[in-house]
Amino acid sequence: MPITGRLCDDEKMARKAGWASFVGTTVEWYDFYIYGLASALVFAPLFFAEVPPSVGILLSFATFWIGFLSRPVGAIVFGHLGDRVGRKKALVTTLMLMGVSTVGIGLLPTYAQAGVLAPVLLCLLRAVQGLAVGGEWGGAVLIATEHAKKERGFLFGAFAQQGSPAGRILATISFLAITQLPSEAMLSWAWRLPFLASAILVVVGLVIRLRLEESPEFAAMKSSRRTERIPLLTLVRGHTRPVLLGVAAILVVFALTYARDTFALAWATSDLGFDREGFLTIILVSSLVQFVVQPFGAVLATRWNVRTIVTVLLGLEVVALPLMFVLIGTGSYPLAMAGAVIATVPDVMYYAIMAGMLAQAFPPSVRYTGIAGTYALTGMVGGALPLILQSLLTGTGTIWMSIGFVAVCCLASLFGARALLSLSARREADEAGQATPGPGALR
Q1: Which of 97, 157, 196, 298 could form a cystine bridge with 132, CB 3.0-4.6 A?
Q2: With contact defined as beta carbons under 8 Å apart, do 239 and 366 qualify?
Q3: Which one of 1.20.1250.20, 3.40.50.720, 3.40.50.2300, 3.30.450.40 gives the CATH number of domain 3-432?
Q4: Neighbour tally for 158: CB within 10 Å
Q5: Domain Major facilitator superfamily (MFS) profile: where (predicted)?
Q6: Distances in Å between the alpha carbon of 56 and those of 21, 392, 405?
Q7: Inter-CA distances, 429 with 144, 217, 308, 432, 443, Å
Q8: How deeply is 265 buried, as exposed, middle or buried, from its count of CB atoms within 10 A (0-12, 13-18, 19+)?
Q9: Is the pTM of this model over 0.85?
């Protein structure tokens, strides 16, 4: 085949991998986000009806956290499968697992119908959701970046990242639709509809992913028998530093998402007088802004110094995320909307860059395990944010302790991201036998 023809085929497959990554992560994040919305709006009276409302919301947020506690297990299992057997097989399995667990939540009996068994089953299915997401994100990033040319890794990694706002948009629209119904209908049957609708999305995602080819980088590694026998063991022995720095670098993403979409949703509707529909609209507008603005972060990363861009974006977020809480606290819809949008822009532009950062932080033989494990470990802290922030608010009676906590998360990500980029650049220079990074390395 002529070289130009082969390049054309490679480009088509890279784009196909990008779209498959986007559709799959959209389905996965839709499933995950509807749980967060439901935990803030309906799970407390449905599954914890025998305790005071303030305790019920804490218990609801605790079940939300369970999905993050099980993520590392999913990262280990699917990371091993992805690094040993293939990225594609792991991604097909995670999508099916997420679909089954989400539909299962939509079919659960409530506390009034089954007593204590209801919250137990809710916790179990939430844990399965966490297993699926633990293996999903890393594989989606890899299937996109490993099909792309090295210099376009940030751009194609952003395909997977677009699934997050797309999934959140669909999840928020679904809950906005059911909030139009009377409260009795919402609590009796309508809350189940967003979960049951997942079945349709999963079928679409599976059809697309089953048609995708394995990533060429993994295929070459497997054919030359360079796969690791136990990727997790290799990761622990030789790559703990990028894992720890990656955890710090990712934390700000969780801080925005779950502070705004879960904790602030409960705080605003319970304590500040916002109605559910109004604050869900704020979340929806923020998600639409994310979908439009986010890819520009990856564009900037391919054209200018990555470390500088990351420093500027996270420096802005250190101010913007606390400001969001202050503006929401005014009780004004326009100011709350402005605060949410202002906090969203720098955070999501950084989120687009983050996938490429992590993909370049690990060698191919442990890349799936490394990325998935790093993201899952961050989720153990990030998923607890609604519980932590609500506990600080309940314990002190003021929002300022919660604001201080998210500000610390932002600073941790700023220093962690800069250190991770420097470490990746040195690793690539060492592998290339150079004293300084080459043209394709991180700058």
Answers
A1: 97
A2: yes
A3: 1.20.1250.20
A4: 29
A5: 17-427
A6: 37, 16, 23
A7: 24, 20, 19, 5, 11
A8: buried
A9: no
Instruction: Give tens-digit pLDDT for 399-426.
Output: 999 999 999 999 999 999 999 999 888 8
- The Cα 312–Cα 101 span in angstroms is 39
Q: How many CB atoms lie within 10 A of CB 151?
A: 10
3 state SS of 362: coil
C-alpha 197/C-alpha 289 separation (Å) is 24
Query: Would you say 205 and 23 are in contact if contact means Cβ atoms under 8 Å apart?
Result: yes
C-alpha 378 chain-centroid distance: 10
Category of 225 on φ-ψ map: left (φ > 0), alpha (ψ -120 to 50) or beta: left
Other beta carbons less than 10 A from residue 433's beta carbon: 7
Instruction: With CA atoms as reference, report the closest residue to 26 among 140, 119, 185, 115.
Output: 140
In whole angstroms, what is the distance from residue 234 CA to residue 304 CA?
A: 33
Q: What is the pLDDT of residues 156-201, one digit of tens each?
A: 666 677 888 888 899 989 998 998 899 889 899 999 999 999 999 8
- Return the domain boundaries, the chain: 3-432
Residues with Cβ within 8 Å of residue 398, at least 6 apart in sequence: none
What distance in Å separates the CA atoms of residue 203 and residue 36, rounded to the nearest whole number? Answer: 23
Cβ atoms within 10 Å, residue 435: 7
DSSP secondary structure letter of residue 151 = G
Q: Among 188-192, 383-387, 425-429, which stretch is predicted with the lowest mean pLDDT?
A: 425-429
Cβ of 330: how many Cβ atoms within 10 Å? 12
Nearest to 374 by CA among 222, 228, 253, 221: 253
* Residues 6 or more apart in contact with residue 43 via CB below 8 angstroms: 60, 63, 122
What whole-number distance in Å separates Cα of residue 388 and Cα of residue 411? Answer: 18
